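Forwarding the complex inputs:
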Amino acid sequence: MDAALRKRAYAKLRSGAMEALKFLDEKPVVRVGTATCGKAAGALLIRDAFQEEINSKGIDARVVEVGCMGHCYAEPMAIISKPGFTPLCYGNLDEGLVKRLVEDFLLQDDPCYEFAMAALEPNDIFPTFQDFPRGVYEEKIILEYCGLIDPEEIDYYIAWGGYSALDKVLHMDPREVLQIVKASNLRGRGGAGFPAGIKWDVARKAGDGMKYVICNGDEGDPGAFMDRNILESNPHQVIEGMIICAYCVGASQGYIYIRSEYQQAIRRVKKAVRQAREKGLLGDFILGSDFCFDLHVFPGAGAFVCGEGTALVSSMEGGMGIPQYRPPELALSGYLGKPTVLNNVKTFCYIPHIIQKGTKWFKEIGTPGSPGTAVFALAGKIAAPGLVEVPMGTTLRQLIYDVGGGIPGDKKLKAVQIGGPSGGCLPGEALDLPVDFDSLKESGAMMGSGGIIVLNEDDCMVRMARFFLGFTQQESCGKCTFCRLGTRHMLQILDAVTRGEGDMDSLRVLRELAEDVKAGSLCNLGKTAPNPVLTTLKYFFHEYEAHIKEKRCPSLMCPNLIAYFIEPAKCSKLCNVCVGSCPVEAIYTRDDGLKAINQEKCVKCDNCLKTCPPEYSAVIKVSPPDLVREKEREMG
Amino acid sequence: MEKDAVIKNTREILKNHTAKPRNLIPVLHDLQEKFGYLPQPAMEEVAAALGIPAVDVYGIATFFNGFRLNPPGRHQIQVCMGTACYMAGGQIALDSFERRLKIRAGETTPDGEFSLEQAACVGCCSLAPVVVVDTFVEGKVTPTRVDGLLLSLGVAPEKQENRSSKKDN
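Prediction (whole assembly, two chains):
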């Protein structure tokens, strides 16, 4: 097909998409964020409430489901646009607010600024997200359209310029494409940071036979949800990146491997693939060229180790997800023994942007060694949890205090857990570390896939280490002895420490085992599993000591080392809340009308502490548990 | 379900897949969607159809957390054990469910009403601790909320009886 005709294929697609979405400029549109996080906060009720109100008032407006903008703390959220007004975003919606917005904004012309969070376009009246403190640091590339476009309607992506990079690439020589990716120094976003260009080069040179492109969406880190968000909010970005990769390396088949827990992501990506096929963006003769490539979704089955490349491929072939020795690298011999490019969701997402805006633009963002942006999932004891995209090299302090809004309450930051089960806990002193692939390794942590959990003084570091080790121990595939048995032994030691039964010598064994597991494991699951233990031993040794020597949990978290106590001086005779809340009748009323806890019966469920009215705040936790008797004597 | 019916349904599902070992996981997904779990006769049928030993099918079914070998309860309760949820009291919520339902995580109540599971991160860390009841996601779950959730599913409030069972971590 000649070039002119090819060019028209995309132009036609684009104008068709814009025509189909004309209503966006012509009538009021309510965009409700219904990614998994939004749904959890009640977004579907909000969507229905908007629709019902609009119907009952007979307004000519559309309700559209979009993905997530990353402001998890304000879910459920909606964006309302109306011709003649700046589009406004509203957070923490409930049915009453929905009624009010439809009545005042859609029916009349009052945008209810008092409830608005931010405007989406710069204007003279209301601040935008860029005016937020986090706006100074945020630089959205791959999250840019997340939460703005309907992921289940391909026209949105195309109308905003999507698939134009693919169109551009189809007019280029695959070698040119490879040159661009190589020159951009794009490093794989799955955690290891291996340059994507080198991987592609190897696969490209591996003969002319069957080749595969696989997208790794097996995001298993507890506390990381950036891939889920992208797959749910803008699936076509990933698909476009994969088609470009396939064109570059000469692959004809592709798979998107998504972990089975992400049901909504699987559904939305399947729909996206179907729509792309209908538009001629997948399948035979893509956009009128002679390039053929098709994609399928492969749902995982729930194994953390399948995030490792060889394990992922092995599970796709119908085997257990057990890592294999490398070499050969997957790029030479991967799925079904054929050359396979396996990249993370985010890595593929950058490709269309790099093709469109050039390597110079990309390399100006971030640090020289790690160009581009990084996507982080902020969670834990932080004021504004959510998903953020910042240039590589942003410091943890900027991320936590400026982007995440700092630590809520009067609490102090104790540690930052970065990189999930493979990463480590860094103390407050490490906050000025720039976050990129290389600098974190020196401190004993790693960027991993980008989950950041902020911990305050109420979080016990021994328990934290135990939690992660428990996770990796359970997820160990069992192939390497050190990983299988070493982590189990380590877990037993940590369990004893959290019960107050440890001894100082066991910490020496713990440290030795940690080094052995690191050295004796084939894949990164085992090689990095001891990181949470080693970093907490390094930076928070005093907490281990307190558990062992004083039988005390400094953060009042380990159930065996704490007791609940009702302070008589604060307790009120007029209140009975804790008695009713106790599931085991451990709380009784004393002769003087005040309440007390029968320690024998207490199961440490935390109910009384949560239910004691704030005006009394009489329930406290003490550690070691023996302190209760002392306090009883003191206070009577 | 009767064994014959299971095998009949399994054969139906196998028709949608080419008989290659690499389709094993997709087939098992379809089976679980149909039956809610992987019945033994179905797994044997799959092994024969794909030409692999039955023990390999069993191996895959037990290797991956996503597959279950027992029928789930009528209501499925998943307590998120992601990092953020764990630190915010996910363990406390799980303990409460275990105490109230008198089963441990991974088990089903004898009457088949409830099954209790730990979930790896659900991906709503800002709502921690999170519990998923059937398809409904509940955020910021305290032990009191656990009582409320169970009450809404028809479990009467805990009997006021003296119990001194103590559980450690």
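Chain A touches chain B through 69 residues (CB under 8 Å).
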